[in-house]
Task: inverse folding
């Protein structure tokens, strides 16, 4: 299929429909409004349903209901809206339902700003709702990758019976890039025989539920969920490396920030300074496998983020104390420039010499 | 010899956890009987609330989904939109529907979702131990209004049916009670009508059922029936507030 | 001569006495001489011969204890 020029938020909608998503429940919030608008326009054309809910809380609970009926369903929002959805996301995880949640991140805390940010790293990777649970969290760096991963997200949600988050920032939502909707491989997925669709008098009632009043039953449930999350950690780590042959510094950056870091790396390489990049494609599970073998030339890590350094903890965990972990970030909707990253790296190298 | 009354197939064999004399059991039975009589048990998905009836999913003999506190109408919306040919109902108490879930119940009516809500109003939070609800009567003592509800501090009891009846998308709104056999027969009729309205695709239907909470009202089950009749019905008048004939 | 027959599933009775409130012939009572396996005085009929099979007792029961037959 030929490439088409699309705005990020609309490309997400097109990718979701392409992946068989027919149900969308949302609530307006900047900077993701083009996505529900696209869904309201396009879903009815394919026999789908768009509902603008009365709140993010209601929208995620509609997702929970539809997911319990066994259909492919999605919602989208932005940071403060995602905070409101955490209740429902926890229920979806607890009841083991598949659903895709798109978060086009903006600056916080509180009402924050409407500008691009990555300050939902903790909210996304640490759960955010109550209880022991995790989401798969995809963090694509460009619109093509967003489209490809969004479609993968629906398959993974069905496979694991778990909510999956696709996290972009305001930049990826608003920018336009050429995108290709590729032929998707058929994925062998288990039947949704657990769905509450009416017994038709043929089976015992199915119950969609996250309540386990007996402590031993809830503990068993938590152990089983953890086995699932362990399987995700084993099988779902994805990352990209860039210029990792003999770097002095290894940058760690995800999403659009990783593109800025690549520019900085190219600039410095032209001067003979070797800087590498590990780009997590999923931020949960964090790609710890990428950090097992490190080039001997590496003197330190540099986390580059559009936040005040929320990813540093994860880098420190996988680093296991081997190298210093430094940080460069902008926040509040300020976007790190390649030159800013270059300056930071120069300062770090100067300091190291 | 004929059996004139036996347990409906709309309920499971599970014994309920409700306190002795709690009228939730009667209301469960009426809903289940209606689903059986309409022959839609196999086509029904119910949504259970948070509150005393949180375990309703163990008692109704149909597919069920457990909602977060107050969110049952939103969950039911998701189900009904995914399964438009199925019968979808929510079963909610007054803390769930009239307090934490006011936005969800107003907007399920506002959208005219083709679902049925059974709203059990016993004027108190039962499960959590008898705290004041928005529906608690003036002067009624609860664990968070120990001197009796004072309108100066806590406002006046919410009449949800009257409020919801003003919304165009709500096509069937009726308040009933279960304090004696005649009231129970009327309640069942209203519940049946509400489900028929859904089956006919006309819009949102709600039946508010006045119910007792002997444990938290601090009286015997039999006295509680009398208290309901003497105190609740005067403030919460029984009757139909809206039926499809009047709805636009 | 009884016109109706009331069968109590006594084991699940919670002794709430709601069934006793609306019997037109006043024969539904709690048997205070016994307790069931739940620890309640179960409902019973004081004079089964008087039963008219109206099912008011069953209508009031929150726990589906009662089955009613009519002759």
Result:
């Amino acid at each position: 299929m030929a490439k088409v020029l699309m705005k990020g938020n609309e490309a997400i909608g097109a990718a979701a429909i392409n992946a068989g998503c027919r149900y969308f429940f949302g609530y307006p919030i900047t900077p993701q409004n083009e996505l529900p608008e696209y869904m309201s326009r396009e879903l009815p054309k394919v026999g789908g349903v768009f509902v603008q809910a009365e709140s993010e809380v209601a929208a995620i609970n509609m997702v929970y209901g539809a997911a319990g009926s066994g259909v492919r369903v999605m919602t989208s929002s932005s940071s403060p809206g995602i905070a409101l959805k955490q209740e429902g996301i926890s229920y979806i995880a607890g009841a083991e339902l598949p659903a895709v949640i798109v978060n086009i991140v903006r600056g916080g805390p509180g009402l924050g700003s409407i500008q691009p940010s990555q300050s939902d790293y903790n909210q996304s990777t640490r759960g955010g709702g109550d209880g022991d649970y995790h989401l798969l969290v995809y963090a694509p760096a460009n619109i093509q990758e967003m489209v490809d991963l969004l479609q993968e997200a629906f398959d993974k949600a069905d496979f694991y019976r778990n909510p999956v988050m696709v996290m972009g920032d305001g930049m990826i939502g608003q920018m336009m890039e050429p995108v290709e909707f590729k032929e998707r491989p058929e994925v062998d997925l288990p039947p949704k025989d657990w769905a509450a669709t009416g017994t038709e008098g043929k089976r015992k009632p199915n119950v969609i539920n996250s309540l386990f009043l007996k402590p031993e039953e809830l503990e068993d449930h938590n152990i089983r969920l953890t086995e699932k999350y362990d399987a995700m950690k084993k099988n779902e780590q994805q990352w990209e490396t860039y210029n990792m042959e003999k770097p002095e510094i290894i940058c760690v950056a995800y999403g659009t920030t990783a593109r800025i870091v690549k520019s900085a790396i190219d600039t410095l390489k032209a001067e003979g300074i070797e800087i590498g990049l590990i780009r997590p494609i999923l931020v949960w599970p964090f790609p710890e496998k990428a950090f097992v073998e490190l080039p001997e030339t590496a003197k330190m890590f540099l986390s580059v983020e559009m936040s005040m350094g929320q990813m540093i903890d994860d880098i420190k965990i996988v680093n296991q104390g081997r190298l210093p972990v430094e940080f460069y970030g902008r926040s509040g909707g300020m976007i790190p420039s390649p030159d800013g990253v270059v300056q930071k790296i120069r300062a770090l190298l100067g300091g190291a010499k | 010899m004929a059996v004139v009354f036996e347990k409906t197939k709309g309920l499971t064999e599970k014994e309920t956890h409700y306190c002795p004399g709690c009228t939730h059991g009667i209301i469960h039975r009426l809903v289940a009987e209606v689903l059986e009589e309409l022959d839609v048990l196999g086509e029904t998905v119910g949504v259970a609330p948070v509150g005393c009836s949180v375990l309703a999913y163990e008692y109704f003999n149909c597919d069920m989904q457990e909602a977060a506190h107050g969110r049952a109408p939103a969950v039911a919306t998701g189900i009904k939109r995914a399964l438009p040919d199925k019968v979808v109902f929510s079963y909610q108490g007054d803390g769930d529907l009239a307090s934490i879930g006011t936005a969800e119940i107003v907007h399920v009516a506002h959208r005219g979702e083709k679902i049925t809500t059974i709203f059990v109003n016993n004027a108190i939070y039962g499960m959590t131990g008898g705290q004041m609800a928005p529906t608690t009567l003036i002067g009624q003592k609860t664990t968070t209004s120990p001197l009796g509800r004072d309108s100066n501090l806590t406002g006046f009891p919410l009449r949800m049916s009257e409020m919801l009846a003003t919304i165009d998308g709500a096509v069937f709104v009726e308040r009933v009670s279960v304090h004696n056999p005649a009231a129970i027969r009327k309640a069942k009729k209203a519940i049946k009508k509400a489900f028929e309205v859904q089956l006919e695709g006309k819009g949102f239907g709600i039946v508010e059922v006045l119910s007792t909470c002997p444990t938290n009202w601090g009286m015997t089950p039999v006295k509680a029936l009398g208290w309901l009749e003497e105190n609740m019905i005067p403030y919460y008048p029984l009757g139909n507030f809206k039926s499809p004939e009047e709805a636009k | 001569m009884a016109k109706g027959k009331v069968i109590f599933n006594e084991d699940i009775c919670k002794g709430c006495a709601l069934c006793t409130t609306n019997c037109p012939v006043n024969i539904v009572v709690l048997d205070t001489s016994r307790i069931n396996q739940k620890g309640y005085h179960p409902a019973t009929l004081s004079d089964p011969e008087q039963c008219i099979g109206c099912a008011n007792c069953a209508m009031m029961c929150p726990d589906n204890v009662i089955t009613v037959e009519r002759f």
User: Anything to note?
Assistant: Chain C has a mean pLDDT of 96. The longest strand of chain C covers residues 4-8. Residues 4-70 of chain C form a domain with the Alpha-Beta Plaits fold (CATH 3.30.70.20).
